[in-house]
Amino acid sequence: MVQLNDECMMELALAEARIALERGVFPVGAVLSAGSQILGRSYKTMISNHLNHAEMNLFHQVFEGDYAFSRADNLTLYTTLEPCIMCFGTMLHLPITRLVFAMEDTYGGCAHVRLENAPPRHLSRSIEIVGGVGRLDACKLFADFLDATADEFWLTGGAPHFQATVKAEIAARRI
C-alpha cells in the first residue's frame, strides 16, 4: 500500500541525491520519517569511502546515542536506490518498519533478500518494502552521474548490471 506522502518524501530524498551529484558523488539520497514528520535527511558522501552511504549517514544522524524510537513509531526509510546489504542489514537492527526506494539496484540491492534462514533476531523483523516510487527521476540522476563521472570504477564498467539498467531505461524513454 502506497501512503499519500511517499511521493513527497521521495522528492526530499531526490533533493539529497542532487546534492551528492553536485559534489561529483554517486547520487543517492535518503530520508527517514515517522508519518509526515521528517527525522533526518542525508546523501552519499565521499566517492571512495564504502561506509558513507546515504542510509548509513542518515542512521548515524538519527540513531546516535540514546533514542526513544521503537517499531511502534512506524518509521519509514526513503532512499533513491535499493539498499545494499550493509544498509539493509543495518536497517534490520533499527526500529524501521517500512522501506520505500526509487530504483532497484540490479547489481547490489538487497531489499528482496529472503530472510527465512536468517538468525532468529532477524526472523521477527517484518519490513514492508515498496519499490519504484520516483524511479524515473532517480534513474535520470544516475544517468547524469554516469555521463559526467571521472571515477575509474564507473569508467571501466563497474557495476555492469546497474549501468545497463540505467542506460536501458534512459534509451527507452528517449525513443
Give a brief rundown of this model.
The protein is an alpha/beta fold and 175 residues long.
Structure description:
- With 175 residues, this protein is α/β, with parallel strands linked by helices.
- It has a single domain (5-172), classed as 3-Layer(aba) Sandwich (Cytidine Deaminase, domain 2).
- The chain is built from seven helices and five strands, in the order αββαβαβαβααα.
- The chain has helices at 6-22, 54-63, 85-93, 120-123, 135-148, 152-155, 160-174; strands spanning 29-34, 37-43, 75-81, 96-103, 128-131.
- A five-stranded mixed beta sheet has the order 2-1-3-4-5.
- Helix 1 (6-22) packs parallel to helix 5 and helix 5 (135-148) crosses helix 7 (160-174).
- This is CMP/dCMP deaminase zinc-binding protein.
- It comes from Rhizobium freirei PRF 81.
- Pfam families: dCMP_cyt_deam_1.
- Residues 4-126 form the CMP/dCMP-type deaminase domain.
- One of its GO terms (molecular function) is metal ion binding.
Class inferred from helices and paired strands = alpha/beta
The whole-angstrom Rg is 16 Å
The count of strands amounts to 5
Query: Would you tell me which CATH topology applies?
Result: Cytidine Deaminase, domain 2
Note the main sheet.
5 strands, mixed
Number of domains: 1
Low-confidence segments: none
- Just give the CATH class: Alpha Beta
Mean pLDDT: 92
State the order of secondary-structure elements, H for helix, E for strand. Answer: HEEHEHEHEHHH
Break the fold down into its secondary structure elements and pairings:
Layout: H1 6-22, E1 29-34, E2 37-43, H2 54-63, E3 75-81, H3 85-93, E4 96-103, H4 120-123, E5 128-131, H5 135-148, H6 152-155, H7 160-174
Parallel strand pairs: 3-4, 4-5
Antiparallel strand pairs: 1-2, 1-3
